[in-house]
Amino acid sequence: MMRIMNTSARKAVVVSTLAASGWMGSSIVWSQAQEENADGKPLGVVHAECALFGPKGEQYRASGLDAESRRRHRLTEITEQVLAMSASSKTSGRRDVVPGASRTDLFQQLDQMGAIDGHLFRAMQDAGATPAATADDYTFARRVSLDLTGRVPTYARLVQLINDPAPGKRARYIDELLNTSEWVDKWTMFFGDLFKNTENNTQVRKYNEGRNAFHLYIKNSLAAGKPYNVMATEMISSTGTNSWEQGEVNWNVGGIVTGGPRTGQDIFDQQAANVAESFLGISHENCILCHDGRRHLDTLSLWGKQETRLESYQLASFFSKTAIQRVPVAGPGNRAYYRAVNNNAANYPLNTTTGNRPPRAPIGAISNVAPEYPFYNGGTPNPGEPYRNALARLLTSDIQFSRAAVNYIWREFFGRGLVEPANQFDLDRLDADNPPPEPWTIQPTNPRLLNALARDFIEAGFDLKALMRQITNSQAYQLSSAYEGAWNPEWETLFARKFVRRLWAEEIADSIVQISNLPQPYVVAGLTGINFAMQLPDTKNVPGGNMLSFLDSFLRGNRIEEDRRSDGSVPQVLNLMNDAFVHNRTRASGTGSATSLARQLLNKYTTAANDSALIAEMFLTVLSRNPTEAELSVARSSLATGTNTALRQQRTEDLLWSLYNKVDFIYEK
Q: In terms of C-beta distances under 8 Å and separation of at least 24 residues, what long-range contacts does 233-238 make, across chains too?
C-alpha cells in the first residue's frame, strides 16, 4: 500500500462522534486528521475515498498512505452525497417509466399498468408528484442483485446485461437471480431474522444443534419453493420428539418462557405473541396478553384499544394443549438438551397469581378459555382437529397473513413498508372504503395497493418468488434514487424515488469476497461448507474469530432485542480501511482459479497504455458503474506513478482499496 514519509511528525487524531442516521440526510462517521509532510505542514484531511479522489489526493498519491493514516476519518453526510459522489457515466440503458411515453402519457396509462405501478403512479398523480426517472442499467443491475441475492453483480454478467439490446433483459435477469443459490442464502438470513432463530435468548437455549436445524429447515424450504403458507403451517402445528433433528419444531421452542406457572400460560402467551407479530404483523397483541387495550393503546391502535385480555387468552389457548419437554442428552453433567413438542390435554386455565404476566383470574363463570381466532372472521377448531393445526388453518386463510407477509417483503425492497412500523398493523385502519373516525387516519400509505398485493400473493399460491418477481419488475421499484428538480419530503410515502440504503453486514463482506475472488471460509459448529457470511445460521456470536468484529460493526443485530440497523459508525470505517479481511483482498496474489482481482487486472492490462481499460473494469467490478471523467483522470494519474512492476502493482492495489472505501460501495442507490 502507499506510504507516508516522516510519520513521526504526525499530529494527534480527533475522532468525531457518531451522527444520527436515516435514509435521507443520513450520516456515516469518518474522522478528521491532519497529516504533516516533510516540512511539518499539514497535508489536509485523510479520507478513505479522498486519498485518491479528494482535493488533497495529489499530495497523497505522491507520498503514499500507510495503514495508520487509514484510521483517520471525518464526518460526512451520506444519502445525497452518495448520489453526487457515485454518479454513473451518463445513462446507458436508461428508459422512461413507461418505455416511449411522456409523463402525461404515463398518467393516462395507469389503468393498463400492473397492480404496483397502477396504484402508486395514480397516487403520485393525485398528489401532484412527478416520479423520478428510471434508473439506468448499471444502477438497476447492482440494486436488484443486492436485493435478491445479497451480492453485487459479477463483471461479466453486468457487461452482458448492459450490452444486451433485446427487450425484456431486466425481467430475464430477475428470473436468473431468483433461481440462484445466493437467493436462497439471502432470504434464509431474512427469515431467520424474522423468526428470531438464534442459539439462545434470555429465556431458552436451542443450542447450536437446534438453531442449525431450524436454519436448514428454512433454507431447504426456500430452495424447494415451498409456499409461505405451508411453511407457516408446518412451524405452528409441528410436533416431534427431537428439536435438534426436526427443524420446524424450533418455532414453538422459541416461545418458551422460564419462571412462569407450572400450567404453562406464560409459554402459551409468548407463542401467541410470536404468531401475531411474525405472521400477522401485530406486535400489540403482546400488550393485550397482559391487560385490556383500553387506556393502554388508546393513542396507538384503534383496533388495539378495543381488544380485551380475554380475546388474547382465546388466541393463546390454541397452544394450551401443547407440552414442550426438556430431554437431556447423555454427557458430562447432562448440560445440553433438546426439546420434544407434543400435545397436552387442557384448555387455557385462568388460575395464576405468579409468572411473567399479571395474574389470570376467572372471568365470571369462565375458568378455562377455549381457543377462538380473534381476528378476521374468527373461527374455532373443528371436532377432533388439533388446536395448533386449527390455528394454522385459520391464520393462513386470513388476508392479514398475506398483508403482513407482503409488507415485510415490500419493506426490504423499498426501504419502508406500506405500513410502518411493519409489525404494528392496526386492523381497524386498513380499509380505504371504510375510513376510521377522526382523528384516526388510514394506516397504509396505499391501502388498495396493499390489499391488491395480498390478493395476488394468495392467488399465486403464496409463492415468495412470484411476489419478489412482481415487485422487482415494477416500474416503481426501478425508479432512480436521484431526482431532478425540487424533491418534496412528503412524497416519501408515495415511493416517487428509490431510497438509498446501507448494505447489510453480510452483503458487504460477501461482495468483497466475490469481487476479490478470495474465499472467506467460516467455522460454525455443526455446519460445513460455509464460505459466505450470508450462509451463517445466526447473527449473534457467529462466527468466532476476526470476522465477528467486522460483521458486528455494521450493526446486524442479534435477532432478539436488537434489530438490524443502518446507522454509520466509527468501527465501520475503521474496518473498511484497516481490517486484514479487506487489505488482503486488495492484494495482487494467487494463480489459476485462485487469482485475486488485482492480479487478474494486472495480468490482463500489462502496460500503461491499458490503464483506462484497467480502471474501467475495476470500477465496473466493484461499484457496478463506469468511473466519472474526474475519477478516471485521478486514477490514471495515480497509475502513471507506477513506473516499474512493483510500483504499478502497488498503485493498482491502492486504487482497489480506495473503491472499497468509497461511500457508494456500502450503499445501494
A: 233/389, 233/392, 233/393, 233/396, 235/195, 236/275, 236/279, 236/388, 236/391, 236/392, 236/395, 237/386, 237/388, 237/389, 237/391, 237/392, 238/341, 238/388
For the chain, give the number of residues. 669
C-alpha span between 631 and 54 (Å, rounded): 10
357 pLDDT higher than 60: yes
Rounded to whole angstroms, how far apart are CA atoms 284 and 408?
Answer: 16
- Looking at 77, 110, 145, the residue that finishes a domain is 77
Above 70 in pLDDT, residue 274?
Answer: yes
User: What total of structural domains would you count in the chain?
Assistant: 2
Q: How much of the chain is helix, strand and coil, in % rounded to 5?
A: 45, 5, 45
The SS3 call for residue 665 is: helix
Residue 308 has what pLDDT? 95
Report yes or no on 243 lying in a domain. Answer: yes
Burial (CB < 10 A; 0-12, 13-18, 19+), residue 180, is middle
Distance CA 115, CA 502 (A): 28
Q: Distances in Å between the alpha carbon of 117 and those of 93, 175, 228, 487, 496?
A: 21, 20, 24, 20, 11
Range of the domain at 300: 193-380
**Structural domain contains residue 73:** yes
Structural domain includes residue 417 = no
Same domain, 210 and 339: yes
For 111-127, give the DSSP string: GGS-HHHHHHHHHHHHH
Contacts of 191 (CB under 8 A, 6+ apart): 218, 222
For residues 352 and 209, state if they share a domain. Answer: yes
What is the spatial distance between Cα 164 and Cα 157, in angstroms, rounded to a whole number? 10
How many Cα atoms are found within 13 Å in the side-chain-facing hemisphere of 653? Answer: 23
Pairing mode of beta strands 76-77, 42-44: unpaired
Distance CA 600, CA 597 (A): 5
* pLDDT for res 87: 47
pLDDT given at position 360: 95
Rounded Cα distance, 239 and 323, in Å: 10
SS3 189: helix
pTM of the model: 0.86
Domain termination site, one of 346, 380, 414? 380
pLDDT, one tens digit per residue, over 630-655 is 999 999 999 999 999 999 999 999 99
Task: Identify whether 43 is part of a domain.
Answer: yes
Contacts of 331 (CB under 8 A, 6+ apart): none
